[in-house]
Design a protein that fits this description.
The protein has 274 residues and is α/β, with parallel strands linked by helices. The protein folds into two domains: 2-57; 68-271, Rossmann fold, CATH 3.40.50.720. It has eleven helices and ten strands. The strands form two sheets. An eight-stranded mixed beta sheet has the order 5-4-3-6-7-8-9-10, with helices on both faces. The chain has a two-stranded parallel ribbon with strand order 1-2. It comes from Geomonas oryzisoli. This is HesA/MoeB/ThiF family protein.
Length: 274
């Protein structure tokens, strides 16, 4: 460790360590890039990729993000964007959960989809994408459908879970599991021009209250579909909320539901009844 620290200190420009030297340190000392990044941050230095974060997230906050683990349930329209944004922000470990493979109708809106990826696992694509943009982030791909039986395995070790599902029943099961495991949940849903975001902290019944009138069947997204821009907008809000929770910054979106109307460019919030 002493030799690694000496190597990094000698190559720092101010407080910044370039990607070239980060990768070289990993090779030279036989450790992962993830481990090298932790060493850099623990020294009070900053990987150069995060220099534009520093006005918002100080170096000690960047270390908090690096040490964090987030589970994203669903790697499609919402989840693909959430995974990418968390990886670019520097969240150290992301569990990417999705049982599906890419189909042609995903190409209009899902960031991780491509013609070459048709038929490929969405969870595996999340890992491949992050490896290409930020190899210091560890992605754990899980090509399984979330259910109450595997909730502990997928969520219990995480600081936050993200709801990027496309069905109400799954969201409610996820919300209940997060409560049972005492893991905060950042919910997102999209349909056509519209979307919503909310945060459920342990002990709250936010999702059950939001969907209190639902009895069965598909949500409105099956009728309205989803264009390319709605998942990107809502996922950005979810990613911001996740980072706030991890950093303990700002005011979390608890006890409230944020509703986004991109057709009329309106954004409103509603109190979730208790």
């Amino acid at each position: 460790m002493e030799q690694l620290n000496k190597f990094l200190n000698e190559r720092a420009k101010g407080t910044l360590i370039s990607w070239q030297h980060q990768a070289e340190a990993a090779r030279r000392y036989g450790i992962t890039v993830h481990q090298t990044e932790r060493a850099i941050l623990e020294m009070g230095l900053l990987p150069a990729r995060y220099q534009r974060n520093s006005g918002t997230v100080p170096p000690e906050g960047q270390l908090v993000l690096h040490r964090s683990r987030v589970t994203v349930i669903g790697c499609g329209g919402l989840g693909g964007y959430v995974v990418e944004q968390l990886a670019r922000a520097g969240v150290g470990t992301i569990v990417a959960v999705d049982p599906d493979v890419f189909e042609e109708h995903n190409l209009n809106r899902q960031l991780l989809s491509s013609i070459d990826a048709l038929g490929a696992s969405k969870a595996a694509a999340a890992a491949q994408r992050v490896a290409a943009i930020n190899p210091a982030v560890t992605v754990v791909p899980e090509q399984v459908a979330f259910c109450p039986d595997n909730a502990r395995e997928l969520i219990a070790a995480s600081s936050v879970a993200v709801d990027a599902l496309d069905n109400v029943q799954g969201r409610l099961e996820l919300a209940d599991a997060c409560n049972s495991l005492e893991v905060p949940l950042v919910h997102g849903a999209i349909a056509g021009w519209y979307g919503q975001v909310a945060t459920q902290l342990p002990g709250e019944a936010t999702l059950r209250l939001i969907y209190s009138s639902w009895t069965s069947g598909a949500g409105v997204e099956r009728e309205l579909g989803n264009p390319s821009f709605t998942p990107a907008a809502v996922a950005s809000l979810q990613a911001a909320e996740v980072c706030k929770l991890l950093l303990g910054s700002g005011r979390p979106l608890t006890g409230r539901k944020l509703v986004i109307d991109l057709l009329h460019m309106d954004m409103d919030q509603f109190t979730v009844p208790t």
